[in-house]
Amino acid sequence: MLTDTERQEIESQLAAYPTKRAVCIDALKIVQRERGWISDESLKDIAALLEMTPDELDNVATFYNLIFRQPVGKHVILLCDSVSCWLMGYEKIRQHLNERLGIELGQTTEDGQFTLLPMVCLGDCDHAPVMMVDNDTHHDLDPEKIDQILDSYRKEA
Ligand code: FES
Prior knowledge:
Layout: H1 4-13, H2 24-35, H3 40-49, H4 54-63, E1 75-80, H5 83-87, H6 90-101, E2 114-119, E3 131-133, E4 136-138, H7 143-156
Parallel strand pairs: 1-2
Antiparallel strand pairs: 1-3, 3-4
Helix pairs in contact: 1-2, 2-3, 3-4
Bound molecules: FE2/S2 (inorganic) cluster.
Residues 80, 82-85, 121-125, 128, 130 line the site of FE2/S2 (inorganic) cluster.
């Protein structure tokens, strides 16, 4: 069930759009911000509020790769998997992340701290290789820098 806060925030967006269903991406982002991901139950509740079918909303949710339909870790690492980063050492960076985190792309660490996902170009190609952790971009990556970045997020925990 949506919380009062989630429902109110979604409803506050309605005036800015011509139809209820046009709010669907904002609604998914609002609920994901609160819960970390979009469960089937959340999807059904949002769809009902916006007078959509769950399948219609799921089609939108699964089209956007930043809407998570499975649980993710506390921090989501988006590793750029596009051409400039390939040329500038992507493979070494991916291997280092795999080793340091003990997971492959698409997986979450056992302690629930990090999920590692591939992502198309993050738009910072002249500073490749690049990754994002949550909303922060980290560029010109090398193994030492990755260790520092991971340690800084672990200290936050
Ligand atoms: S290819 Fe990696 S940031 Fe553009």
